[in-house]
Structure of Isoprenyl transferase:
Amino acid sequence: MTIQQTELLYLPPDLKSELLPKHVAVIMDGNGRWAKGQGLPRIMGHKRGVDALKNLLRCCKDWGIQALTAYAFSTENWNRPHEEVEFLMTLFQGVLRQELREMVEENVEIQFVGNLQALPVALQREISHSMAQTRGNQSIKFTVATNYGGRQEIVQACQAIAQKVKEGLLNPEEISEELFAGHLYTAGIADPDLLIRTSGEMRLSNFLLWQMAYAEIYITDTLWPDFDRNQFHQALRAYQQRERRFGGV
Ligand code: FPP
């Protein structure tokens, strides 16, 4: 029995493997509220949020989902209190260092998207290292959006394309949807089929604006640290009941 068949055995029987999303994106919201509800400082919510993300990654891999993209830090999140931003940057770095071996063993490819040059240098180094060590791994593509903003991503794609036109490398008529998508941070990654947002907020919050054109959106009141395998199962059940028409009838 191949590894993939073994893994698929764990898919709950009410889910159809042929109707699973290939790519799941997630806005992990509600860490602060979760911590407050437990009488804990906000940073404890982020710590528990990492555990929820690890569980989701494992679940996606076990059930045969090919890609997971998580919104870890937006370009707007710099406006949070300095101590919280600093904590998050240190947390990301620590998690990467701690989890790299397991990601390599589990054949996970990790990738970061966003304006990475503005991140602390030590974190940039950890990011480059983890991307290099997992490049080409096949079990699941795990993308972390860090210092990411959808509008900023579109603007930088426009600048790169305009530069090519200016240098005579490209004619304006050659600019197509495919060419444009190839200049986004997510070049080479298929668009998400399902977006999950926790904590009941009904916003895209500048996340993957171009890529989300036909994504199904699932919103749950559950706070991110409480989002577990059962919650994900429910989200997938709801997704499989949707009829995806992509603008057709
Ligand atoms: C939103 O909750 C959450 C964040 C801004 C941070 C999410 C980051 C993680 C879970 C860590 C991921 C780690 C790696 C390495 C990928 P909030 O603080 O906005 O919650 P609130 O709306 O209740 O205040």
In short: The helical segments are 3-8, 31-37, 42-62, 82-105, 121-134, 150-166, 177-181, 229-241. The chain is about 45% helix and 15% strand. The first strand starts at residue 23 and ends at 27.
